[in-house]
Amino acid sequence: MASLDELFTQVTERRKDLLTRTARGRTRQFCMVLEDLFDPHNISAVIRTAEVFGLQDVHVIEEDNPYRVNKSILKGSFKWMSLFLYKKRMTCVSQLKAKGYKIAVASTNTENSVFDLDLEQPTAFYLGSEFHGNHPDTLAAADYEFKLPQYGITESMNVSVAAGVLMTYLDVFMQKKGREYYALSKEDQNILLADWLDRHIHGTDNNSPLCRIDD
Question: Do 103 and 142 touch, CB atoms closer than 8 A?
Answer without folding.
Answer: yes
